[in-house]
Structure formats: structure tokens, C-alpha cells
Specification:
Radius of gyration: 19 Å
Distance between the termini: 38 Å
CATH architecture: Alpha-Beta Barrel
Number of strands: 9
Structural class: alpha/beta
Helix content: 40-55%
Largest sheet: 6 strands, parallel
Bound molecules: S-adenosylmethionine, FE2/S2 (inorganic) cluster
Number of helices: 14
Low-confidence stretches: none
CATH class: Alpha Beta
CATH topology: TIM Barrel
CATH superfamily: Aldolase class I
Strand order of the largest sheet: 2-3-4-5-6-7
Length: 346
């Protein structure tokens, strides 16, 4: 084994210079992948956890330059699911074996804390054996606390980039890197299992930025890390920007598995969009989570974060079955338990 990969696996760390080498060079990819898979098997065997994703609103008050559902996109028909529709997604998901529901949406002022808490509490009451994950953006400490007390236990909020200058190139000035990071530390303090992450190959991203992201993740110590390639959307300011690549995303997944052996690492929809076998390759490179879509088919095309997003025409049952086939096809096994982070002290 090369010294660099061995050092990363044994020490769960490298110097900035060493990270630079490993992240910019194709030569280590095969070895990184094999070691990442071995480490993932040490902790999780061949298990793949599934999370049912419910995209419940595409209204957003933010205007992130990369995002297809940003406020200024007028070519988009907007929707919100009702509480009943969300519960119906959960009912269907429960029957399909999901024990985690991820409620994701734009930052939609219609969903006040009171409304969010009522939805979370209702899901919690009906499905006490399930984990509820929220992914609804930047809120105050008090709001996060209220959702937690209502029954939400996990929160996904990608930090997007740890570098303030880079952050400023991806977001309008009313948004800040500092507030995003404040949110993540607040969530941890409250007791959530937290997911951070980035888009790989986002416009203006440098290798140094990615190393800063790794250092930020080391500081935060999240239970989950969501990464996927940046993919352009035709109705955003980044319509002409280059997409992130499969190769770099897989390389980073493997590095993350070696840096954070027990982390929950999804093979994302964006990875499946950039390559037909992207999610399978992601699992083989160290990922251990898949998030099939549970949103009603009628709204899926409207939650178009980037062009050509996959799985927008399928019923939930089809997505579930497709996941099963893809995962078992490469020798892993879908498990239907809650799949909490290992060693997470509640
Ligand atoms: N509003 C919530 C938030 O800000 O965290 C959740 C929804 S937001 C659409 C979820 C994630 O989608 C973002 O954190 C971002 O990384 C990702 N995303 C948005 N646009 C994307 C694009 N064009 N390509 C790849 N990922 C994208
Ligand atoms: Fe709000 Fe993308 S700009 S979810």
C-alpha cells in the first residue's frame, strides 16, 4: 500500500500538503477505494441504510446562485405539501420499510416553527420507531430547539464551503458562512445528529477550499456528511458553469470514509445524476446510505435543484425497489432499521 493511503487509514489524518497530493492525483483512487470499503465493512459490514426523502416545499426565500429552486427562478411552478400529504408519504414509506424520514425543503416562511413542530410531532406520534430528520435551512437556536423537543433528532445542513470568500461567490451577500456554521454548532449543542457537507466542483472551488472543508469537518465532527457533485441548472446564474465530476466526488467519499470511519455517508442523487451507476460507485467508494425519494410523483419535477435530476418520474415503491436491486446487485444489503450514527451519545 502506498505510504500516503496507509497513513490516512491509520492516523485518520494527513497534512495539508499530503491532502493536496491525494486529492489531486488519480493514482491513489483504486487504493483509496479499496481501503475505504474495508474500513466501512469494519464498522458497518455490507449494510446500506435507507432514508425516505420527502421534498415538501420548493418555495425558498434564499437566492443561492447554484440552486434551481432559488427565489428568483420564475420558470418554476411552486408547491407545498399539506400536513396530510406529508403524513401520507410517511405512511407509504413506513410500509416500504423506511424507518427514517427526511423532510427537506427550501426556506419557506409558510412553514413557521409552529407548523413545523406540529408536523414533526404528528409523525413522531404515528411512527415512534422512526427517526425524523429535518433539512430546512438556517434557523435560530430557539427554533432548532423547538423542533428537537417536538421529536426531530437529526438535521442536515451542508456547510457548502468553509471558506468565507468562496461562500461569498456561491451566495448573495445576505447569507454568510459564519451563520451557516453557527447553525451547525447550535444543532450539535442541542443534541441533534448533524449532517454537514459540500458540493464537489462547485464554481470557484479550489483544492485549498476542499482542504479547509476537511479541517472544518474535523472540528465539527458531524455524524453525517453529504457530498455530491455540483450540477448546473439552466435557470440560475451558474447555468454555464462546469459540473463537478464523478471521479473527484468518489475520491472525496473515500477520503471522508478514511478520515471519519464511522460517519454516515450517502451516495447522493446528484452522484446518480452525473453517472448512471454513480450511486453504486459511491457505495463501493465508502458510502453507506441511500436516500430514495418518497415525494408524491406529481411534485417531483418541481424540486429540480439541477438539470436532469434522476428519479423524478417514479413512484415511491419503484424507487424503493430500484434501490434494493442496485444495492444487492453490487453485493451490499439494504437494511430497514433507523440506522443511527455509531457511538452517538444521546
Ligand atoms: N434549504 C435547505 C438548505 O439550505 O440546507 C435544504 C434544501 S437545499 C436545496 C439542499 C442542498 O442541495 C444544498 O445544501 C446544496 O448543497 C444542494 N444543491 C442545491 N443546488 C445544487 C446543484 N445545482 N447541484 C448540486 N447540489 C445542489
Ligand atoms: Fe433555497 Fe436552494 S436557494 S433551497
Amino acid at each position: 500500500m502506498s505510504e500516503l493511503v496507509q497513513k490516512l487509514r491509520e492516523n485518520q489524518n494527513l497534512t495539508d500538503e499530503e491532502f493536496k497530493v491525494i486529492l489531486s492525483c488519480v493514482d491513489y483512487d483504486e487504493e483509496l477505494k479499496q481501503n475505504a470499503d474495508a474500513v466501512r465493512r469494519e464498522h458497518y459490514g455490507n449494510k446500506v441504510y435507507i432514508r425516505g426523502l420527502i421534498e415538501f416545499t420548493n418555495y425558498c426565500k434564499n437566492n443561492c446562485y447554484y440552486c434551481g429552486i432559488r427565489r428568483d427562478n420564475r420558470n418554476l411552478s411552486r408547491y407545498r405539501l399539506t400536513e396530510e400529504e406529508i403524513l401520507e408519504c410517511c405512511r407509504e414509506g413506513y410500509e416500504l420499510g423506511f424507518r427514517t424520514f427526511v423532510l427537506q425543503g427550501g426556506e419557506d416562511p409558510y412553514f413557521t416553527d409552529k407548523v413545523v413542530c406540529s408536523i414533526v410531532a404528528e409523525i413522531h406520534k404515528n411512527y415512534p420507531d422512526c427517526a425524523i430528520t429535518l433539512s430546512i435551512g438556517e434557523k435560530s437556536y430557539e427554533s432548532y430547539l423547538a423542533y428537537f423537543q417536538a421529536g426531530a433528532e437529526r438535521y442536515l445542513l451542508r456547510h457548502e464551503t468553509a471558506n468565507p470568500e468562496h461562500y461569498g461567490k456561491l451566495h448573495p451577500s445576505e447569507m454568510s458562512c459564519q451563520n451557516r456554521q453557527r447553525c451547525l454548532f447550535d444543532l450539535k449543542k442541542i443534541g441533534y445528529q448533524v449532517g454537514a457537507g459540500i458540493m464537489v466542483g462547485s464554481p470557484h472551488q479550489t483544492l485549498d477550499n476542499m482542504i479547509e472543508d476537511l479541517r472544518f469537518l474535523q472540528k465539527l465532527q458531524p455524524q453525517m456528511i453529504g457530498i455530491g457533485p455540483f450540477l448546473s441548472h439552466q435557470d440560475t446564474p451558474f447555468r454555464d458553469e462546469q459540473n463537478g465530476t464523478l471521479e473527484l466526488t468518489l475520491r472525496l467519499l473515500s477520503v471522508l470514509r478514511l478520515l471519519f470511519p464511522k460517519v454516515l455517508l450517502p451516495a447522493t442523487t446528484a452522484l446518480g445524476t452525473v453517472h448512471p451507476l454513480g450511486r453504486e460507485k459511491g457505495l463501493q467508494a465508502g458510502a453507506n446510505v441511500i436516500m430514495p425519494n418518497l415525494s408524491p410523483t406529481s411534485v417531483r419535477k418541481k424540486y429540480m435543484l439541477y438539470d436532469n435530476k434522476i428519479c423524478t418520474g417514479d413512484e415511491s415503491a419503484q424507487c424503493r425497489q430500484c434501490t434494493e436491486l442496485r444495492v444487492s446487485g453490487i453485493g451490499y444489503e439494504v437494511v430497514t432499521d433507523r440506522g443511527d450514527a455509531k457511538d452517538f451519545a444521546k
